[in-house]
Amino acid sequence: MKVEMKLKGNMARSVNPYGCKQEVLNQINYVKAEGDYEGPKKVLVLGASSSYGLASRITAAFGSHADTIGVSFERGPKDESMLGTAGWYNNIFFREFAEQEGLIAKNFIGDAFSLEMKEEVIKYIKESFGGKVDMLVYSLAAPKRTDYKTGITYSSALKPIGQEVSGENINLEKEELFTQVVEPATEEEIEGTVKVMGGEDWEWWIELLKEADCLAEGFKTVLYSYIGPKVTHAFYHDGSLGVAKEQAEESSKRINENIRELNGQSLICVSKAVTTKASVVIPILPKYLICLYKVMKEQGIHETPIMHKDRIFRTMLYGNEANYDEKGRLRPDSWELSDDVQRKVNDLMAQLTPQNFKSDLTEYQLFKKEFFNLNGFEVEGNTINEVDFETLKAMKP
Ligand code: NAI
């Protein structure tokens, strides 16, 4: 059976499992070409199956020879029209490649917010993972979360606060610019977004791991945040997601208190904007990205998730080139936010029209390719576009 990219708006409705395999391999090869570094050895990644979480897992495993546990929420193949999610296959092939190098690569598929998942992971760490982790990466991007202490389910909403905002976005299916009007978030939506995308669940993970004596001396933990430039603030930094990320900063402070006796460190890492399934549905962001990529590419500093996370791990989290801001947050996004880059991006955005946005003026084609790559399409080095359903069904994470 042949697989090809199917889009519904900015959501992918198909997957090429072998393209995902090649994409994982390409990322591994990127890290290997950068060489080894002295980093973490026992890593737990929450949200490990795609983009920033997957990239973190790959750099830890293939740059620092770390054993890894990955938790993610993904679906396997159901029938020939539903082959599962890209993250499902990323997990499978990551594990295969890591095991070939003699590394442990355990995948847990299910709800990271639940108590059951936390207990299962802790049991595994104690029984089969050497008893402790020295790093926890918190890279979840989720639409909802059930608080297991109250049983209440919360939903996140990417919305502005206090004002209706309109802005242009790109429809990848129709390859058109369109104007999106987003109503302000209600109080309930803001609260929901904080519950889902803030730091509470992160704190609960750390508390339970510590209680179970699963945190190693010198343990580090990191949560990825985004601030971005002014043009994105109404939707992001000053919107409901920004409130959630600010709350995660408070969580990070409490985690630091909690792990002080272990000489541990909790960090918020403000990362750059990249093409992911979460970022392409944020209003304005795609339009900003095609201009940002143009400018950063011209300056030789364009980064994909693996380039960004690998740099963060080897030069900042485990290197001596970390740059912190006044709030103690790690700021690898400084390349994106430099005055020079932002001035040029603003100039470019002002020139965009529905007619020219796909031209060489921008990196629309690169953005589209990166999006296709997330689902295993147009991946450099992959030649397999035919799949056998039964073979895919037999693969286990
Ligand atoms: P993504 O959508 O590519 O990955 C999200 C991960 O979370 C996947 O592994 C998914 O399976 C997992 N997940 C979702 N719900 C889950 C659940 N209930 N239980 C277990 N796993 C679950 O997202 P992306 O873009 O990599 O974002 C990760 C983090 O990085 C987010 O906190 C995001 O705000 C942050 N970030 C993203 C930026 C971007 O440009 N994409 C920029 C800066 C920060």
Highlighted features:
single chain, 397 residues, alpha/beta, Rossmann fold, six-stranded parallel β-sheet, two-stranded antiparallel ribbon, globular, binds 1,4-dihydronicotinamide adenine dinucleotide
Q: Any overview of this molecule?
A:
The protein has 14 helices and twelve strands. The protein has a six-stranded parallel sheet with strand order 5-4-3-6-11-12, sandwiched between helices. Strands 1-2 form a two-stranded antiparallel sheet. The chain has a two-stranded antiparallel sheet with strand order 7-8. Strand 4 (67-72), helix 3 and strand 5 (105-109) form a beta-alpha-beta unit. Helix 1 packs across helix 2 (51-64), helix 2 crosses helix 10 and helix 6 (200-211) runs parallel beside helix 8 (240-258). It has one domain (7-394): Rossmann fold (3-Layer(aba) Sandwich), CATH 3.40.50.720. The chain has 397 residues and is α/β, with parallel strands linked by helices. The mean pLDDT is 96. The radius of gyration is 20 Å and the shape is globular. Helix content is 42%, strand content 16%. The structure holds 1,4-dihydronicotinamide adenine dinucleotide. 1,4-dihydronicotinamide adenine dinucleotide is lined by residues 47-53, 71-74, 87, 111-113, 139-142, 224-226, 271, 273-274, 276-279.
